[in-house]
């Protein structure tokens, strides 16, 4: 039986074995990837170039766009290459890198949207203290903490996962390298339980962040509903809705992917669900944030107006 020292590559699960459908999937993936690059790239450029967007909210949005670009670039290019060239293999090092970066970007993104919930809480519930609580130094520290948590979690998970002896083949039942699927290839119960301990700790942190987000929005809604001005309530809700939509999309796709009943689990459904949580949020987030944000729309429009003259 193969072990981890003899494995040089993993075999990923293909969406289909039909050549025409593979090319169709490649075209679909390419369109989604280009849309994600364009949307997040415009946000990065607009925030960097327009001084009116140099505020805490847009600073965190800038970091969110970076994380979205990293997350979708961790999985989709390899999936596109496999669909285009009709292959399934990924090198051992490539699989480890995919796990490392995917965990890094998704964990950091979850930490960041927790920080963004705090930003909205301070802006609405404690507006007089906004400049004090969310100064440039505090924002940089919170963003660094989000990135740092992602790096730490990714290193721990990747080191634990790829230190496991693998003796159950090299076929990964997913279109990208995912920790639960690699754990199925392990033949060491002690190391397997060690990785589950790390996952348990991550779930605990995940739950704490979730509670923090919920409590923040309970306070936000209480404050907004007590506002005497209808216009003030509308403005407050408008600033919260994009972030709330991003949080809902991020959490709902991940929770459904990992908490769905095993009775409804199948390879086809697992592929679709994993596609939803790994690809859809990074591609859709720019659209969510730009739909109701006039300042961002104006900054992007200004970019296009000035582009020919640069």
TrEMBL record:
What residues form the membrane-spanning segments?
Answer: 23-45, 57-76, 96-118, 138-156, 198-220, 241-259, 271-289
Location of this chain's protein in the cell: Cell membrane
Task: List each coiled-coil range.
Answer: none
Q: Ribonucleoprotein as a keyword?
A: no
Q: Which GO terms describe its molecular function?
A: G protein-coupled receptor activity; olfactory receptor activity
Keywords for this entry?
Cell membrane, G-protein coupled receptor, Membrane, Olfaction, Receptor, Sensory transduction, Transducer, Transmembrane, Transmembrane helix
Cellular component (GO) terms are:
plasma membrane
Q: Does the keyword Membrane apply?
A: yes
Q: Which InterPro entries match?
A: GPCR_Rhodpsn, GPCR_Rhodpsn_7TM, Olfact_rcpt, Olfactory_GPCR
Q: What is its main location?
A: membrane
CDD domains from the UniProt entry: 7tmA_OR14-like
How is it placed in the membrane, per its record? Multi-pass membrane protein
Q: Where is the G-protein coupled receptors family 1 profile domain?
A: 39-289
Question: What the protein does?
Answer: Odorant receptor.
The Swiss-Prot or TrEMBL record describes its family as follows:
Belongs to the G-protein coupled receptor 1 family.
Q: What is this protein called?
A: Olfactory receptor
What organism is this sequence from?
Anas platyrhynchos platyrhynchos (Northern mallard)
